[in-house]
Design brief:
heterodimer; A: 81 residues; B: mainly alpha; 2 domains; 0% strand; globular
């Protein structure tokens, strides 16, 4: 049987001391920016098809880039606090 | 007829008729009506039934006094996942551990099955990682709603903005809503692409080197493939834990 675990870890720590948790988080960063841009563009294109317009895909592209950038800033901020 | 693995050929021989009828009933025309089940789905089903059989075996042999090797292995995996989720989510992470553990085990077995001759990794085809990513996506939103109720929707309007004028708060919330929606869907895409690309590349590299130098070198790349398979299963589980942690956080 495994040894009993510590019943009261610090939730505020949020895995910041674990190097593998950091590896997981930072490996995400490489994909966040392109994924968000593509998803923004795809959602915009879908809305364009639905509403018979041609400008929402451009707005989606810009919002996607902004979303990716915000996600990167959030991750860095969380780990440097 | 597409190229089929032996297991896919058996499934198609047995179930091609009912599967084609079902697909046509839901207005999907299969490309090959005589073989509608692709290798990826067949391998996914194989992993599913293998794990089901393994868990039935494990359940029938559970013992507190004299645990066997299989029980020790799964207790270690469960302990590892519980430690990880407790470290990220906090002390209330126990209800989520079962989902993270099965996600980790399923992806790990699906990644590793490709190393056995005659099989291929279902995660090397984009639809399977996408299915896993959709499960994680639906799960963390469901847990967010279960935890906070309708207040969970506040997550989509950006961080709390106390002290700001109402007009500015409404403007910022309206700006943050599409950005948050896009960023949540981007998680779906990044989870899918990471797992699929790593496993696909691992399979391809092993195959290329095996075709060039069939002795010795493929073993090194198979070893590398095992490391990548374990790491990617771990990263997928870890990111799911991080997303659940964000959804059940108490800040809103």
């Amino acid at each position: 049987m495994p040894a009993p675990r510590d019943p009261s870890p610090d939730p505020k720590n949020s895995g910041r001391n674990n190097v593998w948790v950091q590896v997981g988080r930072y490996s995400q960063l490489a994909l966040v920016l392109p994924s968000a841009t593509i998803v923004g563009w795809l959602l915009g294109t879908a809305l364009d098809h639905w509403l018979h317009t041609s400008w929402i895909s451009i707005v989606g592209l810009l919002l996607g880039s902004a979303a990716g950038l915000i996600e990167v800033i959030r991750t860095v901020q969380r780990d440097t606090k | 007829m597409p190229e089929q693995l032996w297991f896919t050929a058996i499934l198609n021989r047995l179930f091609a008729g009912p599967v084609t009828s079902f697909l046509q009933a839901i207005h999907i025309a299969p490309k090959h009506p005589a073989a509608p089940i692709p290798n990826s789905v067949a391998m996914e089903l194989l992993v599913f039934f293998f794990l089901l059989a393994l868990f039935f075996l494990l359940r029938s042999r559970l013992s507190v006094d004299s645990p066997n090797g299989l029980q020790h292995t799964f207790e270690s995996i469960e302990g590892f996942v519980l430690d990880q989720s407790r470290e990220i989510i906090g002390h209330h992470s126990e209800p989520y551990t079962a989902f993270f553990a099965i996600l980790f085990i399923f992806i790990l077995v699906a990644n590793l099955i490709g190393l056995i001759p005659g099989f291929e990794s279902p995660t090397g085809v984009p639809v399977v990682p996408l299915g896993c990513a959709i499960c994680a996506f639906v799960y963390y939103h469901t847990q967010g709603f279960k935890h906070a109720g309708p207040k969970y929707l506040m997550h989509f309007f950006g961080p709390p903005m106390e002290g700001m004028p109402l007009i500015a708060r409404i403007f910022l919330a309206a700006l943050m809503l599409p950005i948050e929606v896009v960023s949540h869907f981007a998680r779906l895409l990044s989870l899918t692409v990471r797992l699929w690309a790593n496993i696909f590349a691992g399979d391809l590299i092993t195959l290329v080197f095996f075709s060039m130098i069939p002795i010795g070198i493929p073993i090194i790349f198979s070893g590398l493939h095992i490391v990548v398979a374990v790491l990617q299963a771990y990263v997928f589980m870890l990111l799911s834990i991080i997303y659940v942690s964000g959804a059940v956080a108490e800040e809103h």
